[in-house]
Amino acid sequence: MLRSRTIVVGVSGGIAAYKACELVRAFRTRGAAVIVVMSRAAKEFVTPLTFQALSGNPVVHDLWGDQDPGFAVGADAAERMGGLVEHVDVAEAADVLVIAPATADLIARMVHGEAPDALTCAALACRAPLVVCPAMDAEMWRHAATRANVRTLASRGATIVGPGVGALASGLDGPGRLAPLEDIVAAVEAAVVRRTSMAGVRVLVGAGRTEEPIDPVRVLTNRSSGRMGYAVATAARDRGAIVTLVSGPASVDAPDGVELLRVTTAAEMEAAMVEAAASADVVVMAAAVADYRARTVAAGKLKRADAGLTLELTATTDILARIGAAKRPGQVVIGFALESSQGVARARRKREAKRADLIVLNSPADGLGGDTNRVTFVDARGERKLPVLPKREVAERLLDRALELRARAAAKPARGGARRTAAARAPRAGRAAKPAARAAARAAAKPAATRRA
User: Fold this and answer.
1) Are domains 6-195 and 202-302+309-411 of this chain identical in fold?
2) Quick one: fold of 6-195?
3) Dihedral through CA 74, CA 75, CA 78, CA 79, nearest 10?
4) Which residue ranges in the chain fall short of pLDDT 70?
5) Whole-model pTM?
6) Rounded distance, CA 139 to CA 399, Å?
7) Any residues with CB less than 8 A from the CB of 93 and at least 6 apart, and which?
8) Which residues belong to the active site?
9) Closest CA to 319 of 343, 348, 355, 345
10) DSSP 57
11) Which residues contact residue 361 at a Cβ distance below 8 angstroms, ignoring those fewer than 6 apart?
């Protein structure tokens, strides 16, 4: 699984730095190329020479060192490296960046985008999956600032492994130990698999809210931030998918590396989604589309003095139902349902009525506008309730489910009965072969000068 991959191991200045030596050895044993990047403080615990001997590669520990030391890297990594700036080269070469141990100080610097040394520079430049393994004293781990920083990294897509619980260097006992090496290796292996799991798959995501005009300055809208849909688009991009993001107004910045189609109203979102869905392999409709619009939009601003104002509404088109009705064989369609009561029952009915493969159920209290969500996956086989998770992790779980649904659809026999056996297909193949055989015989009978080579 890790053979010919390039794993960049970041080591920060904690007492658990010595355990990174065994981690490097574990990756090498599995056939990976390993590059170690150390913070300044890490060198106080383990020398760069130790990691160089274990990794078989130069160790990056200084922004002012050799900018082209000649790394031995895994398959395809050399093509991603320019050979001009060392810490950028390392970031480009990485299939995974794993930081073990990650101290409270390093985690805080990563959250705020600080880059004073080689390790933080490489982390800031790296687009590969990030695995962070915290290790620190128990009270440092329990501090609200540290916990908030860890949540922020998780919301950006980092995998957090640990910490473990037990005896600490301070003499205390509690959470803060570096996670077991086998757990770290397993997380890195999962990150490698996940990174290419959707390579070439065309993913369409609807996100954000819509705004339906009442007059030139007022709109009907809702409180959706767009974070959930944007997290799905980002996660799909990071898995190698070709992503189209159709977005209404949102409260967060759209991800780079996707095709972004901006819309405002439900009608505009419908047109963009339906057109893009025709070529999509996976459709995720996470947008909060207004159910109603004003039947008539006032030409001028409505005045407070207009006594007895009545706003007449008309229903907008159900975009998910329209896409579901046109669903192609093998295409996966996923919708969201925000319900305040009878959630699972309503999600089941919605899935069937709209021909969706999966409905992601949540409630107004669990995910509207925030960084976390608590959802239930509802599909033909039942439902699966997830705990409260960062929206990026919900997106990862959703895409895992989408891949399972694609595999299940690919394994289904064609409509009209069971698959024909080879013997049953033989007569048809024989009939098709006869005209080809006759054509070949006629070609062979022609003079050599007239036949194409």
Assistant:
1) yes
2) Rossmann fold (3.40.50)
3) -160
4) 65-70, 72-84, 306-308, 366-367, 369, 413-453
5) 0.80
6) 36
7) 6, 8, 35, 71, 73, 74, 77, 78, 80, 81
8) 222
9) 355
10) S
11) 336, 337, 339, 343, 344, 347, 375, 376, 377, 378, 383
